[in-house]
Amino acid sequence: MATVEIISIGTELLLGHVLDTNSQFLAQELASLGINCFFRSTVGDNKSRIRTAVRAALQRSDILITTGGLGPTADDLTTECLAEIFNVPLDFDQSILDQIERFFKAAGQEMPANNRKQASRPRGADILPNPNGTAPGIIWRLDESLLAKQELSPGPKFILTFPGVPSELQAMWKETARPVLQNNFGAQAIWSCQLKHYGIGESALAQKYAHLLDLANPTVAPYAGYGECRLTVTSRAESEARARAISQPIIDEILRTSGTLCYGFDDETLESAVGKMLIAKHKTLSVAESCTGGLVSKRLTDIAGSSVYVKLNVVTYSNEAKIKILGVPEELIQKYGAVSIECAEAMAKGIMKLSDTDIGLSITGIAGPDGGSPDKPVGLIYIGIATKEQSKTIELNLPSRLSRDSIRQRSASAALDTVRLLLLKN
Fold first, then answer.
1. Distance between CA 6 and CA 24 in Å, rounded?
2. Residue 124 exposed, middle or buried by CB count within 10 Å (0-12, 13-18, 19+)
3. From the centroid of its chain, how far is CA 396?
4. What's the rounded Cα separation, in Å, for the pair 6 and 26?
5. Mean of the pLDDT values across residues 233-255?
6. What burial class does residue 269 get, using C-beta atoms within 10 Å of its C-beta: 0-12 exposed, 13-18 middle, 19+ buried?
7. Cis bond leading into 179, ω under 30°?
8. In what side-by-side order are the strands of the sheet with 137-142?
C-alpha cells in the first residue's frame, strides 16, 4: 500500500504566524484514497534543511507532497531545491509565463519581473496547474536512474508541490492531483466518521469503550477538545461502501451504549443539533446572557436558517440590564447576587416572557480572570432554562485555571447541551 509524506515549507509556520490547515486537508483527502500518511513535517525557508527533509521523505515514502515555497520571492525555494537534489536543470516554460501574465492582466496589473521565476520547473517534471493563482506546482514521477544516483530507495516515486495558499492548493488538488494519485495509488478506500459526545470526559469515554480500542479494522480512537469528546471509527476496504459496512456494527454499538451522550456525527455541532431539534419539535428559543457576552447567541445564529427558531437574544451584562430588560427583581440580586441560582432562573423566565417564546435560556457566572471570591470563585456558572411548564438551574464549577475564553466557550456549550437534553425529553 502506498505511503505519503507531507512537508510544509515556510518559516512563518515555524514561528506560529500562520496555521497549517493545508496538512490537515491533505491528510483527510489522502485517507479517503486509502493512501497512508505516516509522517508530516514542517521546515523553514532554508535550502539545506529543505533538502534534508526531502531526502528523508523520499527514503521512507512513495509519495512526497510539499506545500509552500512556490512564490516569486528569494525565500521561495522549493522548486530549485528539488532540481538541486536530483542535479537536473530548471527548464523555463513560456506557456506557464503566458498564463501568469494573463492572470495579472485580468486583474488590471502589470506582472512584476520576479514572477518569471514561477515559470521554471525541474527537467522531467510536469506542471501541476494552478487555476486560482500565479504559482503552479509540479507532478514529478521520478525514474529509477534518478533515485539510484541519489542512493534513494527504488520507486515508483511521485513528488507533488503546491503553493501555501489554501484555496489554491485545494483547487489544484481536486482538479488534477487527486485524480492522478487515485489512478496510480488508490487501491483501497478508507472511510471514517466521528461520533460527537458531550457530558463525558476523554478518559471516561476511553474506559467505556476500552474493548473497542484495540480493533484493527475498523479502528476506534477517542479524542477530546474544547470540553467535548469524540470517537473516530475508521475502516479500510476495497470500496467506500464496503468500508462503511465494516464500520456500521461498531457505530450501532456506540450509539446504543452512549445514548444521550452522543449528539451527532462528523461536522455536527451542539448548536446545529439544537437547531434541528427545535425545528423538528416546532419550538422557539430566546437567550439572555451575562458572562458569555453573546457567545451562545452567536453560535446559535451561525447556523443558516436559525431565524426560524431563535426569537430574541439579549446580553444583559450589568445588574441594571437584568432588572430593566428581563424584569429580575432588584431585591433578588441584592439578596443572592447576579451570579446565583435564583438570578439565572429569573433571567430565563424573564427572557421567555419578554419574547413570548417556548424556551428561555440564561447564563450568568464569573469568567475571570478577576472577580472571584471564596464563596463564588472564577469558573462558577449558572445556566437557567424555563418553559411554560417548568424551570430549572444547573450549576457548573469550571476550573479557575482555565482562560476567560475557555470558560466562556465551555459555558456556552453546556448551555446549548442543556437545551438539547430538554428537547430530548419533551
1. 10
2. middle
3. 27
4. 8
5. 94
6. middle
7. no
8. 36-43, 3-9, 63-67, 157-162, 137-142, 126-128
Residue type present at position 395: E
- The DSSP bridge pattern shows strands 359-365 and 380-386 to be antiparallel
Residues in Cβ contact with 94 at an 8 Å cutoff, skipping those fewer than 6 apart = 119
**Residue 4 falls in which region: left (phi positive, over 0), alpha (psi -120 to 50) or beta:** beta
Please say whether the beta carbons of 27 and 37 come within 8 A.
yes
The three cell numbers locating residue 398 = 469550571
pLDDT, position 187: 62
CA angle 108, 110, 114 (to 5 degrees): 140
User: What residues contact 169, with CB distance under 8 A and at least 6 apart?
Assistant: 22, 25, 26, 67, 162, 163
pLDDT of residue 261: 97
Q: How do strand 3-9 and strand 36-43 relate by DSSP bridges?
A: parallel
Q: Which of 98-107, 175-184, 331-340 has the highest mean pLDDT?
A: 331-340
Show the cell assigned to 97.
509565463
User: CB 31: neighbour CB atoms within 10 A?
Assistant: 17
